[in-house]
Amino acid sequence: MKTIATTWQREGISDLMIPVTPYIQLDERELEERFIRSSGPGGQNVNKVSTAVQLRFDARNSPSLPPPVRERLERLAGHLLTGDGVIVITANRYRTQESNRQDAQERLLDLIRRAAEPPVPRTATRTPPSSRRKRLEGKRRRSATKSLRSAAEDDD
User: What is the Cα–Cα distance from 97 to 137, expressed in whole angstroms?
Assistant: First the structure.
């Protein structure tokens, strides 16, 4: 975690903060890490060493996130979000605790960065008149074709 985190000196408070965007920093104390046994390759060590990391971040109660970012983050998190608003990320891609720890943190920071981007508002557009004419002409043609079929069946 020390490779990602930097110490911020602001207003006389010296806490270990993790920069996410220029205006959002997470307090390292908001992250909870548990080391669990990893599945997959690892030889004899796989049953003895807990290398996988389960990172938990309480998004719903985090003072570091502005409300609009929090709402978008909860929507983006999907199945990673528990009913209590806690994001749980499990990292077991690597064989070392430190690598898995950094991987889990990077995935969380990436998720928060995506949530921090405001959505692009949709601009309303109108269908061009030529497209409307083409669509209605096609409907007329299909209608005429089908009405000719029904007329042929009535003659029998």
Answer: 66
The rounded distance, in Å, linking the Cα atoms of 111 and 109 is 5
CA–CA distance, 139 with 135 (Å, rounded to integer): 6
d(CA 109, CA 115): 10
Q: What is the DSSP letter of 81?
A: B
Amino acid at 6: T
Does one domain contain both 79 and 106? yes
- Between helices 67-77 and 97-116, what is the axis angle to 10°? 120
Do residues 95 and 50 both lie within one domain? yes
DSSP 3-state assignment of 122?
coil
Residue 122 within a domain: no
Tell whether 98 is covered by a domain: yes
Count of residues in the chain: 156
C-alpha to C-alpha distance for 65 and 85, rounded to whole angstroms: 13
Average pLDDT per 10 consecutive residues for the chain, totaling 156 residues: 38 59 74 74 65 80 80 81 82 80 86 85 90 95 90 59
